[in-house]
Amino acid sequence: PARRPRVTVVGIGATSGVGVEEVLAAIDAVLPPDAPDIRLAALAARADEPGIRGAAGARGWPLVGYTAAELAPVMVPNPSAGVAARVGTGSVAEAAALTGGGELVVAKTVLGRVTVAVSR
Protein backbone atom coordinates (compact mmCIF):
# COMPACT_ATOMS: atom_id res chain seq x y z
CA PRO A 1 0.00 0.00 0.00
CA ALA A 2 1.11 3.55 -0.70
CA ARG A 3 2.31 5.49 2.32
CA ARG A 4 0.65 8.77 3.06
CA PRO A 5 3.12 11.65 2.77
CA ARG A 6 4.26 13.00 6.11
CA VAL A 7 3.23 16.54 6.85
CA THR A 8 4.49 18.80 9.63
CA VAL A 9 1.98 21.43 10.80
CA VAL A 10 3.19 24.32 12.93
CA GLY A 11 0.35 25.96 14.82
CA ILE A 12 1.01 29.61 15.60
CA GLY A 13 -0.53 31.98 18.08
CA ALA A 14 0.80 35.52 18.30
CA THR A 15 0.03 38.97 19.56
CA SER A 16 -0.91 41.63 17.07
CA GLY A 17 2.07 43.38 15.53
CA VAL A 18 4.49 40.45 15.87
CA GLY A 19 7.37 40.57 13.39
CA VAL A 20 8.49 38.07 10.77
CA GLU A 21 11.80 37.45 12.56
CA GLU A 22 10.01 36.77 15.87
CA VAL A 23 7.73 34.21 14.20
CA LEU A 24 10.58 32.48 12.35
CA ALA A 25 12.76 32.38 15.49
CA ALA A 26 9.93 30.72 17.45
CA ILE A 27 9.33 28.17 14.70
CA ASP A 28 13.03 27.42 14.32
CA ALA A 29 13.34 26.90 18.09
CA VAL A 30 10.85 24.01 18.11
CA LEU A 31 10.81 22.57 14.60
CA PRO A 32 12.31 19.09 14.42
CA PRO A 33 15.34 19.17 12.07
CA ASP A 34 13.96 16.39 9.89
CA ALA A 35 10.52 17.99 9.53
CA PRO A 36 9.04 17.22 6.11
CA ASP A 37 6.45 19.21 4.15
CA ILE A 38 5.99 22.13 6.56
CA ARG A 39 2.72 24.03 6.74
CA LEU A 40 1.66 26.82 9.09
CA ALA A 41 -1.75 27.12 10.75
CA ALA A 42 -3.13 30.02 12.76
CA LEU A 43 -6.30 31.65 13.97
CA ALA A 44 -7.96 33.12 10.87
CA ALA A 45 -8.00 36.57 12.49
CA ARG A 46 -4.19 36.38 12.84
CA ALA A 47 -3.35 34.66 9.53
CA ASP A 48 -3.37 38.09 7.86
CA GLU A 49 -0.89 39.52 10.38
CA PRO A 50 2.13 40.72 8.38
CA GLY A 51 4.53 38.85 10.69
CA ILE A 52 2.77 35.50 10.28
CA ARG A 53 2.00 35.91 6.58
CA GLY A 54 5.55 37.18 6.02
CA ALA A 55 7.11 34.21 7.83
CA ALA A 56 5.15 31.78 5.66
CA GLY A 57 6.13 33.68 2.52
CA ALA A 58 9.80 33.91 3.49
CA ARG A 59 10.07 30.12 3.67
CA GLY A 60 7.53 29.28 0.95
CA TRP A 61 5.28 27.48 3.45
CA PRO A 62 1.51 27.30 2.95
CA LEU A 63 -0.53 29.09 5.64
CA VAL A 64 -4.09 28.25 6.62
CA GLY A 65 -6.34 30.13 9.01
CA TYR A 66 -8.98 28.50 11.18
CA THR A 67 -11.86 30.26 12.92
CA ALA A 68 -12.21 30.14 16.69
CA ALA A 69 -15.32 27.98 16.14
CA GLU A 70 -13.20 25.45 14.22
CA LEU A 71 -10.47 25.39 16.88
CA ALA A 72 -12.63 25.44 20.04
CA PRO A 73 -13.78 21.77 19.92
CA VAL A 74 -10.24 20.40 19.45
CA MET A 75 -9.03 18.58 22.56
CA VAL A 76 -5.57 19.85 23.55
CA PRO A 77 -3.26 19.10 26.50
CA ASN A 78 -2.73 22.75 27.49
CA PRO A 79 -5.89 24.87 27.11
CA SER A 80 -5.91 28.44 28.41
CA ALA A 81 -8.93 30.17 29.95
CA GLY A 82 -7.31 33.54 29.21
CA VAL A 83 -6.96 32.75 25.52
CA ALA A 84 -10.55 31.45 25.46
CA ALA A 85 -11.79 34.73 26.96
CA ARG A 86 -9.85 36.81 24.42
CA VAL A 87 -10.35 34.91 21.16
CA GLY A 88 -13.13 32.37 21.73
CA THR A 89 -11.06 29.18 21.82
CA GLY A 90 -9.00 27.73 24.65
CA SER A 91 -6.14 26.92 22.30
CA VAL A 92 -4.73 28.45 19.15
CA ALA A 93 -1.29 26.93 18.51
CA GLU A 94 -2.02 23.36 19.66
CA ALA A 95 -5.52 23.27 18.19
CA ALA A 96 -4.35 24.72 14.86
CA ALA A 97 -1.52 22.19 14.67
CA LEU A 98 -3.87 19.31 15.42
CA THR A 99 -6.59 20.53 13.05
CA GLY A 100 -4.00 20.32 10.30
CA GLY A 101 -3.67 16.61 11.02
CA GLY A 102 -1.47 14.17 12.88
CA GLU A 103 -0.32 13.93 16.48
CA LEU A 104 1.20 16.65 18.62
CA VAL A 105 5.00 16.23 18.69
CA VAL A 106 5.81 19.61 20.29
CA ALA A 107 3.35 20.95 22.86
CA LYS A 108 2.50 24.63 23.22
CA THR A 109 5.73 26.58 23.59
CA VAL A 110 5.69 30.31 24.32
CA LEU A 111 8.63 32.29 22.98
CA GLY A 112 8.20 36.02 23.49
CA ARG A 113 5.05 37.17 21.70
CA VAL A 114 4.70 33.93 19.71
CA THR A 115 3.23 30.59 20.77
CA VAL A 116 3.98 27.54 18.63
CA ALA A 117 3.05 23.84 18.63
CA VAL A 118 3.93 21.13 16.10
CA SER A 119 2.00 18.12 14.84
CA ARG A 120 3.09 15.44 12.45
What's the helix and strand layout?
Blueprint: E1 8-14, H1 20-30, E2 38-43, H2 44-47, H3 50-59, E3 63-66, H4 68-71, H5 81-87, H6 93-99, E4 104-111, E5 114-119
Parallel strand pairs: 1-2, 2-3
Antiparallel strand pairs: 1-5, 4-5
Overview of the molecule:
- With 120 residues, this protein is α/β, with parallel strands linked by helices.
- 36% of the residues lie in helices and 26% in strands.
- It is built from 6 helices and 5 strands, in the order βαβααβαααββ.
- A 5-stranded mixed sheet has the order 3-2-1-5-4, sandwiched between helices.
- It is globular.
Question: What would a concise description of this structure say?
Answer:
The chain is built from 6 helices and 5 strands, in the order βαβααβαααββ. It has helices at residues 20-30, 44-47, 50-59, 68-71, 81-87, 93-99; strands spanning 8-14, 38-43, 63-66, 104-111, 114-119. It is globular, with a radius of gyration of 13 Å.
For this entry, give a set of tags.
120 residues; alpha/beta; five-stranded mixed beta sheet; 6 helices; 5 strands
Looking across the biggest beta sheet, what order are the strands in? Answer: 3-2-1-5-4
Helix content: 25-40%
- Number of distinct helices: 6
N to C succession of SSEs = EHEHHEHHHEE
Structural class: alpha/beta
Tell the overall outline: globular
How many individual β-strands?
5
Over all CA atoms, what is the radius of gyration?
13 Å
Taking pLDDT < 50 over at least 5 consecutive residues as the criterion, the unreliable ranges are none
